[in-house]
Amino acid sequence: MTTTDTALLAEGLTKSYRGTPAIVELNLRVGVGETLGLLGANGAGKTTAVEMIAGLRAPDHGRAEVFGLDPRRDRAQVRQILGVQLQHAYLHGALTVGELIDLYRSFYPDPRGSAELLELVGLADQRRIRFEKLSGGQQQRVSIALALAGRPRAVILDELTTGLDPRARRRMWETIEQLRDEGVTVLLVSHTMEEVERLCDRVAVLDAGRIIATGTPSGLVERVGADSLDDAFVALTGTELEAPE
Ligand SMILES: Nc1ncnc2c1ncn2[C@@H]1O[C@H](COP(=O)(O)OP(=O)(O)OP(=O)(O)O)[C@@H](O)[C@H]1O
């Protein structure tokens, strides 16, 4: 049952690609204001899961909710309250960073300011550069700024800091901490234990399309008698996470 303190909900979400299951009976709840980390090895199904919760991919079975709304049926309303940054953003390469940001700001009644968004992702100096001329990490930072343009109540961030240099990564963590302080709900797909331990209230571990454990980062470590979240992940899944680029 949905309650008013639930921001994002997955109930029995199931998806196969050409008969091969990618996500099986996914049940997940992210509370309002909570930051939840979704951890899993390559191919575990993280992107498929968050795309279904965001309404960008139709499940075979099950349902998703975003603040009580159906992300596919109530798409227009959900767009106003949910920001999504996906691993592979397809953006118009000929537009400059500033133009892209202003285009996205125009979709919302009360957007964040352009200067604030550029500052949040550390791209103030790149405002006049065309998107296609940016480095991969800078392009990723643009997609994060776009996800935040409409002051969303919740954000889904898929591998927020993969490919970012250490300074950009730290800055991004500070941005997430600022969002948390503002009460924004965050669903964070991550490969980085340090990131999850620093930012997340709770973690869900996905393995071969199924959630195999949920809990606080320290609770998971304790439960499996591990020394670190890294070790807990290996103990739970039998797989090591790849180090971020
Ligand atoms: N569009 C698609 N068509 C066919 N198979 C797909 C498609 N998208 C994903 N898959 C398969 O579904 C499984 C889960 O993929 P998904 O991208 O959701 O995993 P992930 O945990 O996000 O992986 P990664 O960490 O590598 O990004 C994988 O086996 C993948 O090959």
TrEMBL record:
Q: Where in the cell is it found?
A: Cell membrane
UniProtKB keywords: Antibiotic resistance, ATP-binding, Nucleotide-binding, Transport
Its topology with respect to the membrane? Peripheral membrane protein
The answer to whether the entry has keyword Secreted is no
Domain (ABC transporter) spans 8-233
Descriptive protein name:
ABC transporter ATP-binding protein
The species this protein belongs to is Microbacterium nanhaiense
Entry GO MF terms: ATP binding
